[in-house]
Amino acid sequence: MLTDAQRNALSSARAQVNRLVLGKETAVTMTFVALLADGHLLIEDLPGLGKTTLAHAIAATVGLGFQRVQFTSDLLPSDVVGVSVYDGAARRFEFHGGPVFTNVLLADEINRAPPRTQSALLEAMAEHQVTVDGTTHALPDPFFVIATQNPVDLSGTYPLPDSQLDRFLMRLNLGYPDRDAERALLAGEDRRVLIAGTLPQLGEADLQQMRAAAAAVHASPALIDYVQALLARSRHHPGVRVGLSPRAGLALLRAARALALLEDRAHALPDDVQRLFPLIAAHRLVADDAGDGDALATGILQAVPVD
Questions:
Q1: Rounded Cα–Cα distance for residues 57 and 31 (Å)
Q2: What three-state secondary structure class fits 145?
Q3: Nearest to 150, CA basis, from 107, 196, 87, 179
Q4: Which of 56, 60, 54 lies closest to 21, judged by CA?
Q5: Which of 77, 167, 179, 302 could bridge 125 with an S-S bond, Cβ 3.0-4.6 Å?
């Protein structure tokens, strides 16, 4: 469990992000879940709905190193991970790390880049390292990727491959703000100005300790049975061509523990799993024909009772 000081700091951090990103309390909570669960976050929605603002607000509030990469059709893998440059004086190649060498990386509009460039993030997200010219370089710890993408039916987008999607702990949709939140946005100060003046509420040591506390949250054998039943159902559910892997189950348990910690509980509940399952499962499910992952995830959840 967290100390009183850590609990207060985490509460202040969430409150600050909610002041910067109005009307998105659920999305903010789930972003903190991904951060505490040592996962990565994919935010999918139409342009202009606050995806980038949320990423900037989290980075400023957590107080870690931040880099932003705008993914475009001509972006190269070396533009993301870095490149080896020959140093004539030293007579050797020197590696110059790219923007991936940071704590919080915003991969903006990731699906506007071609697959070869998208895949440059695979090793970084999975192993927290990159390999260039046969040499492996460790990334900073913590390392948290927030990727945004536009819906795949918009022009100029490349669908993310299944292997890439699987590296994201969860996928969020922000949607339009409600009337009151939109009014406050229109009448208030520019979000960029507010974020620029934001003071960090957490630091690297705080985050590492909170991640350790989240990993220590108890998951009972009955809860693990429930998660396993969801995985098994996904592999035989009507409309699903490829179900969930054990990695998806591990991601679900990590996220459930993190959500329990955010709610100041020492144990994860089936309710945590049910809240998180659509966000963690939908983008991993491979549907028959033109099936919808969100609908399939909801159907799987409804088909598996909680014992």
A1: 11
A2: strand
A3: 107
A4: 54
A5: 167
Fold of the CATH domain 217-307: Helicase, Ruva Protein; domain 3 (1.10.8)
Q: Look up the pTM and report it.
A: 0.91
Q: Cα–Cα–Cα angle for 246, 253, 307, nearest 5°?
A: 95
Domain with CATH 3.40.50.300 in the chain: 4-216
Burial class (CB in 10 A: 0-12, 13-18, 19+), 119: middle
Q: H or E segment at 115?
A: helix 115-118
Residue 50 structure tokens? 């606050």
Start and end residues for every CATH 1.10.8.80 domain found in the chain: 217-307
- Reduced to 3 states, what is the DSSP secondary structure of residue 179? helix
Q: How far apart are CA 28 and CA 10, in angstroms?
A: 12
Contact 244, 281 (CB under 8 A): yes
List the one residue out of 80, 59, 78 whose CA is nearest residue 69: 80
Q: Which two tokens stand for residue 264?
A: 């100041």
CA–CA separation, 186 and 240 (whole Å): 43
In the chain, DSSP assigns E strands to: 41-44, 66-70, 82-87, 92-97, 104-108, 129-132, 135-138, 144-149, 170-172, 240-242, 286-287
Tens digits of residue pLDDT in 48-79: 777 888 888 998 999 888 899 999 889 998 99
CB count in 10 Å sphere of residue 116: 11
pLDDT at 37: 97
- Interatomic CA distance for residues 55 and 62, integer angstroms: 11
User: Which CATH code for domain 4-216?
Assistant: 3.40.50.300
Of 42, 1, 12, 73, nearest to 203 by C-alpha is 12
Instruction: Give the chain's length.
Output: 307
